[in-house]
Design brief:
With about 260 residues, this protein is an alpha/beta fold. The protein has two domains: about 100 residues, Response regulator (Rossmann fold); about 130 residues, Response regulator (Rossmann fold). About 45% of the residues lie in helices and about 20% in strands. It has eight helices and ten strands. Helix 1 links the parallel strand 1 and strand 2. The radius of gyration is 20 Å and the shape is elongated.
């Protein structure tokens, strides 16, 4: 299970990475736990620490960023002029500056874990994806585009998605295809066999064959990454419609 945030590092010593990880846990705005992963699994990282003074490390980071534009990073450097458009921390590293940089990432990506506010009338949405950057991107986009209250929940793998969909009613489910363990096609079939849920496949797989597989699994819509704003708005409106229908069904049941 992908529990919390996978923290990776490039060009740093393991000791320095562990020290930085322990500092990150002090950030008050972030309630998820950090898990430090080894360099040979760096492609699984959600947040990457990069030694900005190491040319090989920077080249490797640029390769990873080209493959996944949603990756977050902190560049650590001795240089006076920080890299542009990066979250850069100059050495010697101060605890408060490091925490402030992390909180800036949190704020910019709309990672708001506050429990305040009445969400009982909101459209209930479940986002299923094993990538933390994708989950935070979807949260940011959906909150930006929705013209009505929404309540977003997350699942990080197929098993958790099924458990949540079984115990809760969601007006809209965004479901990734390629995940460790059970893939999205199997998850969709399981959810559809148990509940009348509206499932949108959200995946990087674009071939006609994959779309046919999505249809055969029972999904209601198939969107490729990165999703266009117009398509997300379209699906959000369908979720709102289902929310309204849900209240109508509840009212009719009470009358009968």
């Amino acid at each position: 299970m992908h529990d919390g945030i996978y923290l990776g590092y490039i060009g740093l010593s393991e000791l320095e990475a562990k020290v930085l990880k322990s500092i990150f846990t002090l950030a008050p705005q972030l309630k998820e736990n950090f898990s430090l992963i080894p360099p040979d699994q760096i492609e699984r990282a959600d947040l990457i620490l990069v030694n900005g003074d190491d040319g090989i490390a920077m080249r490797k980071w640029n390769e990873l960023r080209e493959a996944n534009q949603l990756l977050s990073s902190l560049i650590l450097t001795d240089n006076e002029k920080p890299a542009e458009s990066e979250n850069t921390i100059r050495r010697p590293i101060r605890v408060q500056k490091l925490i402030a940089a992390l909180e800036e990432i949190v704020e910019r990506t709309s990672l708001d874990y506050a429990n305040g506010g009445d969400k009982t009338s909101a459209v209930d949405i479940l986002v299923v994806d094993d990538s933390f950057p994708v989950r935070k991107y979807m949260q940011h986009k959906l909150e930006e585009l929705a013209q009505f209250p929404i309540n977003i929940s997350f699942a990080v793998n197929g098993e958790e998605a099924i458990q949540k969909a079984t115990s809760n009613y969601y007006n809209l489910i965004f479901l990734d295809v390629m995940m460790e363990g059970m893939d999205g096609y199997k998850v969709c079939k399981h959810i559809k066999s148990d509940k009348n849920a509206y499932v949108v496949m959200l995946t990087s797989k674009k071939s006609p064959f994959d779309k046919v597989r999505g249809t055969m699994s029972g999904c209601d819509a198939y969107i490729t990454k990165p999703p266009a704003d117009a398509r997300l708005v379209e699906e959000l409106n369908k979720g709102l419609k289902r929310r309204k229908e849900q209240f109508v069904d509840i009212g009719q049941a009470q009358i009968s």
